[in-house]
Amino acid sequence: MSVRVGEAASAPPFPEAAKKMVANSQLRRNVRHATDVIRTKRGRVVGEKEDWEALRNAGKAIKDHTLANLDRYLLQFEEACTKAGGKVHWARDADEANRIIVELVKQYEADEVIKVKTMTSDETRLNVALEAAGITPFETDLADLIVQLGEDKPSHIVVPALHRNRMEIREIFMKKMGLDTLGYQPEDLAGAARQYLRERFLRVKVGISGANYLVAETGSVVVVESEGNGRMCLSLPEVLISIVGVEKVIPRFEDLEVFLQLLPRSATGERMNPYNSIWTGVTPGDGPQAFHIVLLDNGRTEVLADPESRETLDCIRCGACLNACPVYRQTGGHAYGSVYGGPIGAILTPQLQSMEHSQTLPYASSLCGACYEVCPVKINIPEILIHLRTKVVESGHAPLAERLAMKGAAFAMSKASRLSLAHAFARLGQWPFNDDGKLDNLPGLLAGWTETRDLDAIPAESFREWWAKR
Amino acid sequence: MTAREQVLARIRKNQGGPADQSIPREYADVSPLSREEVVEQFADRLRDYNATVHRCAAAAVAETVAGILRARGKTGLLVPAGVPAAWLPEVFAFRVDEGLSYAELDASQGVLTACDGAIALTGTIVIAHTPGQGRRALSLVPDYHLCVVRLDQLVATVPEGMRRMAGLLPAPLTTISGPSATSDIEMIRVKGVHGPRTLEVILVD
Predict the structure, then answer these.
(1) Tell me, which fold does domain B33-204 have in CATH?
(2) Which of A4, A17, A141, A378 could disulfide-link to A117, CB 3.0 to 4.6 Å?
(3) C-alpha span between A161 and A145 (Å, rounded)
(4) Which residues of B touch A159 (CB under 8 A)?
């Protein structure tokens, strides 16, 4: 099996890529603005929901329960979906999934497909496989269209083109759509996308989608969206192919009442997103008359193996952790080198690849905990980051300073007397960098922390020492 | 070993955690609001999404439809089979969708449909594509959607709405919360991308 997560395996290490991104002030402004807007909207609609914690607890419990019984629920889904006229395929890795889809498209004698936003197909690099087989994929989500026409990469799970502003988008559209004039208001740009895609929606015979949820009990598939491009791709073509990670299954139809409340408020700060499509196999006389679904492993069953970090697979791809993350807000998504950026990407990407690539990602965090705070299914991302750092250190991939620091921390913190001694040494050691009680220019590994912020110097007397005197 | 066998074998080897855990469902199942407040909340949410909202008595639907069409300068709409004839005012041309081409749907002045339910808290309309609602393409391709919601179809919360929807399976379900929209450009909400750019709702007592 060869797991591939986009181009993550060949991406530069995070610190290197981040440096480049942080130097791009336009990109930083765009990312900061977009994440600020979503955070504000999310805060408002989450704040008005008095049962938010109860919803989070239910969401978490449903996901954890599913992961403990994943084989049972996948088989139940397969049986129900098949009975309703769907055809279920299984894929061990990205290449196998792509091969199945390319063969299906050829079998239906199509040379073009319309696609509704699927991160999973970005993960497998499906578009590259389709194009190599002479099949043209049209991305139809506005942000995905901006990314595709701009020959760019997605930088956010929910809003993949949030690193682009209107003037940049206008330029891309004029060039790639062959337009002589185009306004720069968001309405003008959305209008251009509507016109560009309209005829393709009505013409193309094969649609490709991902899915937000698979319902084991009923065999139903759910896609959550805003623009209507999803409904177009899911209901106008003659053939529909969905590619879905095995962790997307949920046990009961009833469970949707939890996730359809958690997801829109977390993802876009809306009480409900404009459209949800829920379909069960094939409906005679309405929508695609052939439905295929590809259930993808691609490293997910490896993530399942570690009880400490298994809950990574609870993720419902809302992107709230990206918007909340002080590191993501500085670097944007591209620095993570993966289709999955931000805190969730920092734990998901290396695990999907059995910790053999992207080992710098678990360090792409200040462990401030904002991601955990906003996660609608309570994934303890900071704890998993630390767990994965330990794994990186154990595998010998960590930088030398980090390995020594980790060993030192373990040594110092395992015994209180040693910690006191360590504090005393640290007070001495910080002297050359101490400027009026602020540490502003630490060396080596610690430079990252103090490049963008000052650190309070270690006080002359520690809490432990002060406490002991009382 | 097939891919299916191999993936399932890996899952069986690696899965774990709370095997038989009961799910805590302590979130709100019903609304504390009065019936009239629930109706007002639904209308508020719809307006918040930029939908236009009307309310009328059961006997006045046709009259309300006529007023809307006149105001919008429309001479007629598409309708699915199964829409009550009493909703359709005379003089205007209502064409029943009997397998119209996508191009014909696209060129139409819009569509009038019924619905299968509505949720006040989120301003959501549920369409199950049963008689009166038509196939999925019919309420999607036309640029204008006029939807009639009987207030006895309205529930307050999402769990109540999902229970209603569960009873409609295996019909394909579409939930609609305002006209199509995007915030993909600088997070500015733009009303109307690919789905109907205008959504108008008649609430019927």
Answers:
(1) Rossmann fold (3.40.50)
(2) A141
(3) 9
(4) 183-184, 187
